[in-house]
Design goal:
The protein is an alpha+beta fold and 715 residues long. 43% of the residues lie in helices and 12% in strands. The protein is elongated, with a radius of gyration of 50 Å.
């Protein structure tokens, strides 16, 4: 082996110990005497001509000493015999070290790197211990083997050949790309994405690696004014009239009219239009790409995808906050005015405006939504709708609803919103819980109507709902469930088994199942439920029904107006009313009234009367007032208020007044007894004790108390 040095050859030949310029190891490395030890012996005074083993030992020790103990000293001081004029590309180092040297110094020779220290090398972005060892080790070795001659005279250098156009264009393009990356705040990111070729030779692999590590910081930056300075210079160069046109017509968010500017300068409106047109041409040049203002605008547009918070843009580009002299406005407002492709609204920057960005946002979300319009934010690509926390704030600004962190894109009506909530929950939910998840100022009753009439939903229990496409068991009315279970069991089933089959599965009360199983279409005999073969008859006659009173050609049923009546809900009436109107179970009838048809139906356990809200509104009836439903023999219906009790009325007259009779103050005692007998279902009876007995039998508590006061106490 032979190692060539700047003063001879070191190796196995007889000439290896002959030095052209004798030097010692101590002279070669003046700051590292303490480590110049080989085989336990100091070699500081030894000639720097040695065997290959000694050469390698010294080089390794000096390299380690410089890295560990001489980090702040210039490498040129530590290595005085390193060839300063040797081209840097002649230094044998790896790809990472080569890239580091390019970032460390602009010098093309070792002069630049020798003026730095180990600490400076470590400060270069991306440099680790291995890279530093590579560079320092190469410098130590080149101190022994490098060329010590002076650099060639410039006059001796051949003239630089003119570069081909394609190469010049490539250089310009790379410089433009590096400038763009700096404007975007991406100066330390690689400029290129290189597709590797595993079959390429090692030398080409090194080239690809170097290209892949290039960043904007590796290229010179020409001193140029900032966008703010450029815009300021542009404005300062305008005359006063053009300044006003620029300020009031081009930049202002609410431009003044051409006529207003024309009046200020005593010229025609057309003249101002011409001046504005010329000024717009100059503004177009001002904001063109490749200029400081144009590059900044291009960077802003690139960062708005499709929207960005103004605060984020201001943080990334602080010059946007600077106040523009003569405007009393920050620079971002000026840029907003001169660029039609960026508009700022309520703190959001959008391209070209927020309405278009909202439309793009909706299209973007739909690509990730399920069939019910639900989007999981985790499925969205990063930065697709702004950076970081901006996404949620932007979607809220756009009016999107959220449920348990999911984005709901389809909430135009209660049905759509309910489907989205159920889709997020993933299983049946109570109607109240769904309604709470919607969290809108809507009527719960109208919401229930929406669920019941929308084929997308299936009722799974008395209070819970699911999406129909989940294919879950549907809950019907208790009657429908009883019918289904009976059909599945041959038409009859023990009542306890029926209760277990329905109450447990659908969450209804066992008592409700038992009640329905003994009424309507079903009958309960000896503990077995079966379908009824004979139609059910009302359990009580009108004459035996409490609160239902006869008065000639009219029957009156007493009620007290409540909230359900006032808001238009239907309500239950006794079976005696159904019998009075000849309404069997499962049937209905309509009565005529001055305010339209009035329905009475028997579909449930009890008959029901349709809404009387229209009557109460006409009468201006408050909650708590005593009222009477009037059923006349001519098949007509009305609602009337209870009249005031006449002053001085007897207890018996007061009892008759409770039945809806209004003229009780003019009746004699026998007439009162007769009228009470008719009202209580025993017409023609004139004995007071029989009337009192009938009242007791109907459980007419208030009437009984008054009659006992009138007839029993007196006796």
């Amino acid at each position: 082996m032979e190692i060539v040095t700047s003063f001879g050859a070191i190796g196995d030949s007889d000439d290896a110990n002959i030095l052209q310029t004798p030097r010692t190891w101590g002279q070669m490395f003046p700051e590292s005497h303490a480590v110049l030890v080989v085989g336990g012996r100091s070699v500081v005074e030894d000639d720097a001509s040695a065997s290959a083993d000694e050469y390698e030992a010294v080089a390794e020790q000096v390299t380690q000493d410089i890295i560990e103990n001489r980090t702040a000293t210039a490498l040129g001081v530590l290595l005085p015999f390193a060839p300063r004029h040797l081209p840097g590309k002649r230094l044998t180092v790896g790809v990472r070290a080569f890239t580091c040297l390019g970032r460390l110094t602009d010098s093309s020779t070792l002069e630049g790197v020798l003026s730095t220290s180990v600490r400076d090398i470590f400060d270069v972005r991306g440099v680790g211990l291995g890279t530093v060892q590579d560079i320092v080790g190469a410098l130590v070795r080149v101190s022994l083997t490098g060329d010590q001659s002076e650099p060639p005279s410039p006059v001796d250098e051949p003239a630089e050949a003119e570069l081909p156009p394609a190469i010049r264009q490539l250089i310009d393009d790379v410089l433009a790309l590096s400038r763009w990356r700096r404007v975007r705040g991406q100066s330390i990111e690689p400029l290129f994405e290189i597709r590797g070729d595993d079959a390429a030779p090692e030398q080409l692999q090194d080239i690809l690696t170097r290209l892949e590590t290039l960043t904007a910081e590796d290229f010179p930056t020409a001193a140029e004014p900032s966008a703010f300075d450029t815009l300021t210079a542009f404005y300062d160069d305008l005359d006063d009239r053009d300044k006003q046109i620029f300020r009031d017509r081009i930049v202002s968010p609410v431009p003044v009219t051409l006529q207003a500017v024309a009046d200020d300068w005593d010229v025609s409106r057309e003249r101002i239009r011409q001046l504005e047109s010329k000024l717009q041409t100059r503004v177009t040049e001002l904001r063109s790409f490749g200029t400081p203002v144009g590059d900044l605008l291009a960077a802003l547009r690139a960062e708005i995808t499709p929207v960005a918070s103004l605060e984020r843009l201001l943080s990334r580009h602080p010059e946007l906050r600077e106040e523009f002299v003569g405007f009393s406005s920050p620079m971002w407002q000026v840029l907003d005015g001169i660029d039609d492709n960026i508009k700022v609204t309520d703190g959001w920057a959008a391209t070209p405006d927020t309405e278009v960005s909202k439309a793009k946002t909706h299209e973007f979300l739909l690509a990730f939504a399920d069939e019910h319009g639900v989007v999981d934010p985790k499925s969205l690509p990063p930065g697709g709708l702004g950076a970081g926390d901006e996404q949620h704030a932007w979607l809220q600004w756009c009016g999107y609803d959220f449920f348990r962190g999911r984005i709901l894109t389809s909430t135009k009506n209660l049905g759509d919103h309910a489907a989205s909530v159920l889709s997020v929950h993933g299983e049946s939910m109570g109607a109240e819980d769904i309604f709470a998840g919607i969290d809108k100022e809507r009527s719960f009753r109208s919401f229930l109507n929406q669920l019941g009439g929308d084929p997308r939903f299936t009722r799974t229990s008395k209070s819970e709902w699911a999406l129909a496409d989940w294919d879950v068991a549907e809950y019907g009315s208790i009657r429908a469930q009883i019918a289904r279970v009976l059909d599945e069991n041959g038409g009859a089933l023990d009542v306890d088994e029926l209760v277990d089959a329905i109450a447990t599965r659908f969450g209804v009360a066992a008592s409700s199942v038992r009640t329905y199983a003994a009424t309507g279409d079903f009958m309960l005999e000896r503990g077995v439920v079966s379908r009824r073969t004979v139609a059910a008859a009302p359990r009580k006659a009108p004459e035996d029904t409490r609160g239902l009173y006869r008065d000639g050609a009219v029957w009156r049923f007493a009620i007290v107006a409540n909230k359900d009546h006032l808001r238009g809900s239907g309500f239950a009436v006794p079976s005696g009313v159904a019998r009075l109107l000849n309404v069997d179970y499962g049937a209905s009838t309509e009565l005529h009234s001055r305010l339209g048809a009035q329905a009475v139906r028997w579909k449930g356990v009890q008959p029901g009367c349709g809404s009387i809200r229209r009557f109460l509104q006409e009468l201006n009836t408050p909650e708590g007032d005593r009222m009477f439903l009037e059923f006349r023999d001519d098949n007509t219906f009305d609602v009337v208020p209870a009249t005031p009790l006449p002053a001085g009325a007897t207890s018996a007259a007061a009892a008759l007044h409770l039945t809806g009779k209004s003229d009780v103050g003019t009746l004699s005692e026998p007439q009162i007894v007769s009228a009470l007998a008719e009202a209580l279902g025993i017409p023609g009876e004139d004995r007071a004790r029989r009337v009192l007995s009938a009242a007791r039998g109907r459980d007419e508590v208030a009437i009984v108390e008054l009659l006992e006061e009138a007839w029993v106490t007196q006796r």
